[in-house]
Predict the structure.
Amino acid sequence: MARQSISFTQPNDDWLKDQINSKEYASKSELVNDLIRQARKQQRKIDWIRAKLEKAENSGFTKQSKAQILAESKSLLNG
């Protein structure tokens, strides 16, 4: 595992410490890795939606209704 040294602003460091103190996470490293995993997952969802929109814009039409597109998007976003 790669080792990094990073600095945090005081409010962010305080928040990290609060998470550790609440026993939500065992260490700052664990918490930061979890936040990065969440951000990566969110980015994959954003990329999927962007690709879907680009495909729809390029095709000029879709056979799905607004409700179907919305339901599919919500399903993806909710995991």
Summary: The chain has a mean pLDDT of 90. Residues 11-77 form one domain. The first helix runs from residue 10 to 21.
